[in-house]
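Record 1 of the preview.
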Amino acid sequence: MRIDLIKYQALGNDYLVVDLPAALDELVELLPLICDRNRGLGSDGLLAFDPQEMSVRIFNPDGTEAQKSGNGLRITAAHAVLEHGAGNEFELRTADRANHVRVLARNGAEILSALDIGRPSFRAADLPANFEGEPDRVNLDTPAGRVKAMLVSVGNPHCVVFDEPATKARCLELGPYLENHTAFPERTNVQLFEVVDRTRARAEIWERGAGYTLASGTSASAVAAACMRAGLVDDRVTIQMPGGDLEIHRASSGNLIQSGPARRVYRARVDLADFR
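->
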C-alpha cells in the first residue's frame, strides 16, 4: 500500500504529516522504522490531520499517541494553510481542546503562527504524577542523582528540572530516568533550563516517546510556566533551544501563547510494504 506523506520542521523538530482518511493503523505500526533516521525517512513523529474536522492526532516515533505537541500543532497549522487553504485564524482540535491559531506571516513554504496552548496546571493529578496537590518542587531520585523539579501540565506532562546545567550531556543522562520514573505512571517529558535574564531562558529537552530533541513547543511552554511561577521571568519570555527560539506570552486569561515558525520540507510517496 502506498501512502502520501509531507515532512515539515519547526525549529528542527520534524514531523511527517498524513491526511486522513489513510491506512493509519498500518502506518502507526511501522512508525519505529519509518521515523528511524538511518533506516527510514527520519522524523520526531507523525501528525494525522483530518481536514474535514480540522483535528489532529499526534504519534511518537515509538508508535505511542501523544496528547499534545506545540511544534506539531504549528506544523499542522502550516499544513492546513499551505495544503488546504486555511485562513488567518482558525482552530485545531486535539483530544483535550480546541487550539486557537493565528497566522502572523507567510514566506513561501514557511508559516509563522501564534498558538494558544491553554492555561498551565501545576496539579500533580493533571500530569498525572504520584504527588498531592500543587507542589512547588518535588525531589526525584535517579541513578544519575537526586533532582528538584516542578510538575507542569500544558495538556501533556512535563518535569521541569531546577538547578541543573542545561547541557545536552546532562539532558541525555537524566532524561531517560526521569521520563520513566515511577512518579509518572504515564511517563513524562523532561526539561533542563537556565535563566539568562528576565526575558530569556535556555532549555534542553528530553521528549516522552522520542528522546532528545532540538525543540518542543509544549516543553518551551512548560519551562516558561515554571519560570513564571517561580518569579524568575516576566510574562513574555523567549525560550532558547538548540533548534531555535520560541516566544511565549502569558495572556491576561492565564493562557500561554507561543509564536514561532513551521516550514514544509518535502513530499514523499511511501510503499508501506517496503518497511515490512
